[in-house]
Every structure is written in C-alpha cells, then in structure tokens.
Amino acid sequence: MSTKVTINRLATGVPGLDEVLGGGLPEFSFNLIAGPPGCGKTTLAHQMMFALATPERPALFFTVLGEPPLKMLRYQQQFDFFDSQTINQSIRYINLADDTLAGNLDEVLRRIVSAVETYSPSLVFVDSFRSVVLASQTQDNPNNNLPQFVQQLGMLMTTWQATTFLIGEYFTETDTNPIFTVADGLIWLRQSVERNSMVRKMEIMKMRGQPTLPGLHTFRIATSGIKVFAPAPLNPVETPLKFPIKRVKMGVPRLDEMLGGGLPQGYSLLVAGPSGSGKSILAATFLAEGARNGETGVIAVFEQRPNHSQNAMLSNLIQTGQVGLVDSRAPDLSIDEVVQLLLSEISRLNATRVVIDSLSGFELALAPTFREDFRESLSRMVNALTRAGVSVLMTSELEDRYTDLRFSPYGTAFLTDAIIVQRYIEVQSRLLRIMAVVKVRASAHSDELRQYHIDDKGLQIGEMLTDQEGLLGGRPTSQPTETIHAGDNNV
Amino acid sequence: MSTLSEESRQIVASLACRVGPNADVARIAEATVSILQAMDAALTPIIGRQGVVAMYRRSVHLCACAHPQLAGVSDSAQAAPDLIALKSVLVEQSAVDALHFGEVLLTTFYELLTTLIGPALTARLLRGVWEPSLSDTPSQENSP
Q: How much is the ipTM here?
C-alpha cells in the first residue's frame, strides 16, 4: 500500500481543459490565470467555479478593483453555465474594493482569511489580482510587502484546503513576479491577431506535478462558455498492418482494380487533380459505396458555398444520416478544432469513411496564423484520423503543370498512404481526362494511365491510351504503328 | 413595472408588514429605511458599497422625476445611501404619500437591479430582505 500523498484532480468542467492540464486540476493548488484584457480570464474562472462548486464544496469569489461586480454578474449571466440558484448558496461573491482602495494588503488578507474561515470554501477566486498588486504599489506604507502577501495567501489557502485562483492581467512572462514562484499553476490566455483574424490560445506555463500538454492550445468562447481544443491524444503504439489487408471499395470497380483490389482499410488517400477533374464526384461515390455496404461516413466541406457545390447523391446521404457533415464556417479555424469536430462526428456515427473536400478550401478556412504550419497541421490531422481507424479520402486542387509531376501543392504527398492523380490531356482538339494510381503503401497497384470520363453515374474508367505517348506532358503524340484514335471508342 | 408585478406586490406587502397596523409617517419612514438597509446589507458584500450607493442615487433620481417632493433626498455624492435625508423628507409627507413614495422608491431600486443583473439573480440576492426569518443571510455581516 502506498503511503505517499494522493493529489486528487478536479474536473474543471471546461471541455478540453482537463486534457490540456494533464488530467484535471490538482486539488488545493494555488493558481494564476493571466492574460491581457478580454482574453476570457473571468469567464474561465466562472465556468470552473460553476462546474465545481457544490453546497458541500462551496466557492468564494472575491472581487477586488477592476471590473465592477454588477457588470461582471450582468455579463457572466449570458453564459449557459451561470446558475442564479447557486448564488449565496454554493457560490458567494465578496467585494473587497474598499479595502483594496485603502491600499492596505494586511487588511485585504485579513478580510480574505475571515471570509474563508466563515464559509470554509473549497474554491477561492480573486479577481483581479492585478489591482491588489497595483494598490500595494501606489501607497507608501512600507509594511506592505507583496511577496509576503502572496506567500501568506498561498500558504493559508492550501492549509485551508482551498483550490485557489488569482486572476491577473498585464503580467509579462519575463517579470520576476513573486506570484510566479509561489503559484502551483500558471494558466496563460492569449489572443493572437493576424490581419483580420483573431485566435484565442491557452498555455499551461506551469502545473506542479502534472504532465501538461505543452504549447499553445486554441479555444473558443461561445454561449456555452469556453471550449479548449486539445490536440487529439497520441497513440504511441501504432497498430501494425494486418495481412491480408482488408480493403474498402471505392464505388468505381475499375479503380478498385487499379488500387490492387480497393483502398486498404485505414489508409489515407489523396486525390489530386485540376479543377473539374471529378475529385468531388469520386469522393461522393466513395461515401455512397460505404453507405451501400451499411457503413457510415463523414464529410468535411471547406467551400464557401457548400450547398451549392453538393451533388444530389451526397445531399441525399447527408439527409438520411448515412453521412455526417462537418461544415464549420466559423472563422479562424484551428487544426485541432477541425480534428475535434471530425472525431466527434466519427464517433457519433461510428463512421468508417471520411472525406475532406478539399485541402485547398481547408487551408483557406484556417486562421492565417496556422497557415505557416499547414503541412505540419495536415500531418497531425491525417495521423489523428487514421489512428481512429477510418479510411480517409482527401481531395487536392492541383494546377496542371506539364513540366513536372506533382501531386499536391503543399508537398504533402508523403503524408498519405495512397495517391491518385488526375490530369487533362489534349488529343485531337479534345480535352480528355486521365488518371493513375501513383502510390499504395505496402500493396501492389496498377501503373496504368487510364482515360476516364464523367457521366451522370459518376466516373467511368476506360482503357489505357497505348497509341499515345507523352501523356503527362499534356500534349501526347500518336505512335505511328497504331491507327486507333484516343477518345473515339475506348470508353 | 407590469413585468415586476409579483415583486412589486412582495415589496408593498413587506413594507406594509413592517409598518404594522398604525400607519403613521414616522413608522412608514422607519420601515422604508429598514428595507433599504436590508437591501444594502444584502448587496454591499457582493457589489461593494460604491455599487449600492450609485444604485440608490439612480433610484432616487428616477423617482424624483415623477415625484418632485423626493428631489431633496439625495443631491450630493455620499459614501453611503443617505437614509437620514430620506427619512426627513418622508416624515414631511402625508401618510398616504409617504407610503406611496416608499413603495415607489423600493420598487424602482428593485427594478433597476433587475435591468442590470436580471430577475432571477435579483430575486436570489434580495431573498433575505423579504424573509427576515432566514438567519444565515448575508445581512448578518453588515460592514461598518
């Protein structure tokens, strides 16, 4: 039996925050929530308070200078988590403005201690702590010692078995503020603004004894409160490929043949081609084939007018619930938010097929601040999805370039397990389409360039154009020994 | 005020209860002030003294627009609601007028708080004012 202390971890009630904190909030910890004005500090505090406070585990919320409590109560009520019934029961607000104005930190501490002794709270919030700091600086009583105040407050709260949050603003990370040393946890909220886009980010700079998720995590504030988009958990052990490989059908029998019998289950497939080459149609067929076999799917659409571009087959699948639609037109998306939307839809529908149409639209939908890391972000998304065990089809707009053979504009071809490339070629004054399977990892596949056309039943794959050569250059030349003309009768 | 009819009735009833059967102006003034003090005691710990004073001044100002007799109740910035001034104005009125002004002022104060923090939270915070029997209300910790 272990005789070591067990630190309980409290569920914060903020979606995604427990994951970022590394398993919840350590009980009796002394924390600082910092960040510039308007970044959501008070909202975060309230959301945790309403989630955690119970009559047995009450909360005290000390308002100091700064946002007047009347306004705070007025605005915090706009959130769903605010429950008036808990006020003066499990949640008590206590205003310390007068004591703070006097600038006497000893008196402030005495008021806090007396309230803590009266109500025995399990949770204590001080908003905003910054004003306590300022008040101590603007008067010349030499007995006021901020480090000592913080030290005493931290010790008192912990011995009174209260989990404490100080809410402060304008702190700079390079400050040698005594509170940074005393605090067990530092939760930093930021707003990153680039052009007209604003993205909220959270960083756990410190959380004693916890394996927090490092780095900046995006979050949104909606009427339901704060939602943190924690990165999808990494699975260190990748499930090894099982042989024989199970394959999913594409809905185009000849394409299945070219892939060596269908797309291996759990693979990611990139369909790259120029505008109008039928990528979206192939994606819809892929989902329809799943639905035909009783599978469900999810499609993420990142076009400006998604309803406009949807084909009838896809609309029908979405309406009947066989395909879930992720159509976030929220501005300033982050990759983790998209992954979370996809994963929740996948688990809701128990989906096995996922389509992302298209990567180009996806890049545009991301907030500018994430575009620099687009490749890395894509890689994380593909990993998260394939780890969920689904087969993924992604489309990628590809400018036809006849001087080189490229598969995606992002240099992302290596990220996917399989690649299909589509091309236009000119033969006898006609624009014809060809496609080829470029890669299927750990599987034999066709190396043929096949001509195909699109009709109301979808993609129809024809034969190779053996009488032509130089197809990838876009302007093939006839071989003199053959007399058949491409495009006339080989479909 | 129609949306607050129930609360208004509660305020009127509470005032009548505190005034008792012999409705002379002194008792009316006393009862009105005691309810305001109870509201002050319930709100000051939460929204601060300055918040309560500001709300009281706004309520008096709104009432004085319709009832010029109340104009003298609060014309200077005070650190606390100037209830002595209120009392001295009320006792100069007839009993009917004093009761009416008391009701109007209390209702206006209540309504003002409702516009700021909503009916549910207002009712929650001021519950102890109408139920003086609840001994564990924050009115206990009346700041000096």
A: 0.78
